[in-house]
Amino acid sequence: MSGREKIPYGRQWIDKDDIDSVIQSLKGDMITGGPFVELFEKELASRFDADYAVVFNSGTSALHAAYHAAWLDAGHTFITSAMTFAATVNAGLYLGASPRFADIEPDTGNINPDNIEALIDETTTLIVPVHYAGQPADMERIAGIASDKGLKVIEDASHAPGAVYKDTKTGSCAYSDMTVFSFHPVKHFTTGEGGAVLTNDTDTAERLCRFRNHGITRTDFEKESHGGWYMEMQELGFNYRMCDIQAALGVSQLKKLDMFIEKRRDISIKYDEAFMENQLIETPPYRPRTMHSYHLYPVRVSVDRKEFYERLHAEGILAQVHYVPVYQHPFYRENGFEDFSLPETEEFYKKVISLPMFPLMSEKETDRVIDVVNKTLEELG
């Protein structure tokens, strides 16, 4: 390619307000778990209409904690999608549980509720729908299945802050026991690394807080307190705490979430219009009474996807593929999924590619992506 600047598939937005917030935290007395952590949790819960938000040092640790708080354990099974990042599934393995993969809807990439019930047996305790790319899964149907079978539901909403499903915000837990967010730099807003679990249940929130702090509590003792210094480790937990520096960045970033989503949707509209008449590319679908938050803009192409990917990269358009189906990774192939196959998941994977999508994208960059995509499709078609 020429000396033109590369356009990544995602990039964080950091401005002076964010930097000032982080500097303020560095000047405070506590830079581990301090006032910004408490403030960030309060503002997350308020923004997403949940009773509690508990923050963690990564989206993965948030998933691990949520599964623990749902009492997922060795010998249990949980149902999820394979069209996701491996952490969604790995977090269950950390607790000794086993995944069962349901096939997806062929257009959204979300778990297909039609495929869930056949996977449920006496070992199943949990369903984990993934809101792929920011498009909410069919939560009403999933919640109905879970209620009928006595199962818990945890939404992996790492892609979906700002999404709306049937007039409810993703994160409100209107159809679930918990919702998990990720604050990785390519997500909607960032804390560098970080995550959160939102819930409306007091006991669940307390269990999440213990788990991120080595299983230790400074209240609700099982034995008599020895004095003001006393604490108890009541279960095996981890050091999954978010520091105040991260939370300070999160507090500032959260204020810009509506603007970030608006810019993502503006790009999506431009992409939709540009590719509407092209028979070689399928754009993300719309669903009634939902609002897509566009963490990703995944298209499905009817040309050689590998060649398409390589030509885009040669032009500086750093598109990405989301995702290799989890069960196709060598670790999973070697641990029970050697001959496993899901037809819709694999067909989706063969065609899907994520085009650049982030709030800092300029109109000129968006036009460049459109031009290169259309030119490349014409050459390969």
Fold topology:
Elements: E1 7-8, H1 16-26, H2 35-47, E2 52-56, H3 59-69, E3 77-81, H4 87-93, E4 98-102, E5 124-128, H5 139-149, E6 152-156, E7 164-165, E8 168-169, E9 178-182, E10 195-199, H6 202-212, E11 216-217, E12 232-233, H7 244-254, H8 257-275, E13 281-282, E14 290-291, E15 297-301, H9 305-314, E16 317-318, H10 330-333, H11 343-351, E17 352-355, H12 363-380
Parallel strand pairs: 1-16, 3-4, 3-5, 5-6, 6-9
Antiparallel strand pairs: 2-10, 7-8, 7-14, 9-10, 11-12, 13-15, 15-17
Helix pairs in contact: 1-7, 2-7, 3-4, 3-6, 8-12, 9-12
Overview of this protein structure:
This protein is of the alpha/beta class and 381 residues long. It has 2 domains: 16-254, 3-Layer(aba) Sandwich (Aspartate Aminotransferase, domain 2), CATH 3.40.640.10; 257-380, Aspartate Aminotransferase, domain 1, CATH 3.90.1150. The chain contains 12 helices and 17 strands. The protein has helices at 16-26, 35-47, 59-69, 87-93, 139-149, 202-212, 244-254, 257-275, 305-314, 330-333, 343-351, 363-380, and strands at 7-8, 52-56, 77-81, 98-102, 124-128, 152-156, 164-165, 168-169, 178-182, 195-199, 216-217, 232-233, 281-282, 290-291, 297-301, 317-318, 352-355. The strands form 5 sheets. The protein has a 7-stranded mixed β-sheet, sandwiched between helices. A 3-stranded antiparallel β-sheet has the order 8-7-14, with no helix packed on it. Strands 13-15-17 form a 3-stranded antiparallel β-sheet. Strand 3 (77-81), helix 4 (87-93) and strand 4 form a beta-alpha-beta unit. Helix 2 packs parallel to helix 7 (244-254), helix 3 packs across helix 4 and helix 9 (305-314) packs across helix 12. The longest helix has 19 residues, at 257-275.
